[in-house]
Amino acid sequence: MDQSRLSNIVHGLAAGSLSPDAALAMLRDFPAGAGTDFLLDTQRRLRTGLPEVIYGEGKSAGHIIELARRLLATGEQVLATRVDEAKAAEARQAVPELAYDATARILYARPKSCDPKRGMIAVVCAGTSDVPVASEAALVARCLGNPVEEIRDVGVAGLHRLLAWLDRLRAARVIIAVAGMEGALPSVIAGLVDAPLIAVPTSVGYGASFHGVAALLAMLNGCAPGVSVVNIDNGFGAACCADAINRR
Fold this sequence. Notes:
The chain has eleven helices and nine strands. By secondary structure, the chain is an alpha/beta fold.
């Protein structure tokens, strides 16, 4: 934030001409930093409840290291998605505070403590091939302070496997359902529970799956009402949506 603007807010609070609520609103809505600092949105959590997150795919290890250092310097947590193992190893050597989950492909630091007031987010995946996307969703949700339970290998080819978890599914505050192939899992779950359900199509499948487009269209056209759908392989987006529901 611009120093003169910040000084005015502080002096207004001290003089009593500015209420704490008004000061918070000014801090929340005024863009962070000046010059190149505008590139790092350190006030995003104030505005949206979600931190600035680094999308690692397409960025060099050097870019990720620089952004992680700047986030840590401002007291923020670090979440960097779609980071391969080579870039993660380089980043961890430069910034020892970072941890890495190879399955989820996420670099992270300073995850929020689990908020006991929040309900459980169930992350359900159809098959082992869907696990990387499901792991991304689960880890992001945990880093944002949510209790998470992962349920794996409960695809509709063996319906008895899903029904064995029905009590836990009904205990969830929000459900994230991850599936490729024909993408039927979310519709089945949505017909059994009353929790908000976020469907994540994955690019898993043979030729006519069209790298996840078939699952995406199936989920968008599901007959069970109340299902929201995110983009193909977007476990991160599903976690952010589930976190927003859980924070309410």
